[in-house]
Amino acid sequence: MLISIFSAVESGIIYALMALGVYLSFRILDFPDLTVDGSFVTGGAVAAISIVNGVPPVIATFYAVLAGFAAGAVTGILNTKGKINPLLSGILMMIALYSINLRIMGKPNVALLNEPTIFNQLEGFWGSLGIDQALNDILTSMGADRVPGTWVVLILMIFITIAIKLLTDYFLKTDVGLALRATGDNEKMIRSFSANTDNLTIVGLGISNALVALAGALIAQYGGFSDVSMGIGMIVIGLASVIIGEALIGTKTMARTTLAVICGAIVYRIVLTLALKVEFLETGDTKLITAVIVIAALIAPKIIASQKEASRKRRKRAMLASGEGANNA
Question: Which stretches are transmembrane (predicted)?
Answer without folding.
Answer: 6-26, 38-55, 87-106, 151-172, 200-222, 228-250, 257-276, 288-305
